[in-house]
Amino acid sequence: MLVLCLAMIALLRLAPGLVLSRTLHRLLVEEPVRQLAALDRTRLLTLVVLGLLLCAGAEVFVLMGSAEMAFVLATQIALYLDAVAVSIVAAVALRARPLVQWLGARLQSRGRRSPRHRRTRRPAVRSLANDDDPAPLLLAA
């Protein structure tokens, strides 16, 4: 089986012009992408959760009783995760709006100054000592 998969991958990569390669590409790549693109978010999430349940093994189906119960559980989990994601996005949007407005106002006002703004000079700081001698020299012994 592994050899067959590697042979198909090599055929798709090394000889894309062959009729067999184009047929394999259409069946293995284009058609699944087209079907996945037609799914909405909730159904795609349901398929992911159902796939995870199937990867968990046959124990899940023994506990659920049948495949229909596993599908119902996957649908409920997917709807729950979808609702959680929507509520998180809504909360972030509500909290981020004032921050975006504050940053926009701050960045716009940064470049310009008010017309009455004058630049004032600070007076030079003078030493209070009354000595005109240069800095003391350290004597070497």
Automatic annotation (TrEMBL):
<keyword id="KW-0812">Transmembrane</keyword>
<feature type="region of interest" description="Disordered">
    <location>
        <begin position="111"/>
        <end position="133"/>
    </location>
</feature>
<keyword id="KW-1133">Transmembrane helix</keyword>
<feature type="compositionally biased region" description="Basic residues">
    <location>
        <begin position="111"/>
        <end position="124"/>
    </location>
</feature>
<keyword id="KW-0472">Membrane</keyword>
<feature type="transmembrane region" description="Helical">
    <location>
        <begin position="45"/>
        <end position="64"/>
    </location>
</feature>
<feature type="transmembrane region" description="Helical">
    <location>
        <begin position="71"/>
        <end position="94"/>
    </location>
</feature>
<protein>
    <submittedName>
        <fullName>Uncharacterized protein</fullName>
    </submittedName>
</protein>
